[in-house]
Design goal:
Blueprint lengths: L2 H14 L11 E10 L4 E8 L4 E10 L5 E6 L5 E8 L1 E7 L3 E8 L8 E10 L25 H69 L8
Antiparallel strand pairs: 1-8, 2-7, 3-6, 3-8, 4-5, 4-7
Subcellular location: Endoplasmic reticulum membrane; Endoplasmic reticulum-Golgi intermediate compartment membrane; Golgi apparatus, cis-Golgi network membrane; Membrane
Family: Belongs to the EMP24/GP25L family.
Protein name: TMED5 protein
Length: about 230
């Protein structure tokens, strides 16, 4: 069996049968959510985090008058980490500790308009501590003569995984931007149609008044004598 064929078989073994408890990938969890926040309401969400992890949160107001909302991010101890007042979007990253982080979107300042809000969470370094490369040593026995080591394969897979995750994140943000721009265009379209109809109605009324006034000028108001 040639060395490259052995390399291919080892790569398939790593992908299909990972050892239990081995967490060589840098865990990165992405999630996004879009919801409608009614006027005069406040919505809060909770995210459990571990120590020395990273929490990145990005939000955008996709629709609603003013395209603005108040945003709060609180630590597990109740301390305010971030406060955005009447913002349309924002990106915040914090280093976390053990506990539940709370973030809230506040629309209580609006009495009429509801808001459509999109947010995305990116959680990094959420894996277990104490993982090392000892779990993989039994799989690299007999590979000293190979040009590429198993660690190199794992590093390449991690690199591809990170780039794919970044691509998915960028596509999600682009969809959010597209949705907000579409809502703005539709709102402008409705506004233009409304005022066009108003102007048309005014022109019709003015034309009718002008015709009536011209007719009244040429009427013979003298009474005929008998």
């Amino acid at each position: 069996m040639g060395p490259w064929l052995l390399l291919v078989l080892l790569g398939c073994l790593v992908l299909l049968l990972p050892p239990p408890g081995a967490a060589e990938f840098s865990p990165s969890l992405d999630s996004d959510f879009t919801f409608t926040l009614p006027a005069g309401r406040k919505e809060c969400f909770y995210q459990p985090m571990r120590k020395e992890a990273s929490l990145e949160l990005e939000y955008q107001v996709l629709d609603g008058a003013g395209l603005d909302v108040d945003f709060h991010l609180l630590s597990p101890k109740g301390e305010t980490l971030v406060f955005d007042e009447r913002k349309s979007d924002g990106v915040h990253t914090v280093e976390t500790e053990d506990g539940d982080y709370m973030f809230c979107f506040d629309n209580t300042f609006s009495t009429i308009s509801e808001k459509v809000i999109f947010f995305e969470l990116i959680l990094d370094n959420m894996g277990e501590d104490g993982q090392d490369e000892e779990d993989w040593k039994k799989y690299v026995t007999g590979t000293d003569l190979l040009d590429m080591k198993l660690e190199d394969i794992l590093e390449s897979i991690n690199s591809v995984k990170a780039r794919l995750s970044k691509s998915v994140q960028i596509q999600t943000l682009l969809r959010a931007f597209e949705a907000r721009d579409r809502n703005i265009q539709e709102s402008n379209f409705d506004r233009v149609n409304f005022w066009s109809m108003v102007n048309l109605g005014v022109m019709v009324v003015v034309s009718a008044v002008q015709v009536y006034m011209l007719k009244s000028l040429f009427e013979d108001k003298r009474k005929s004598r008998t």
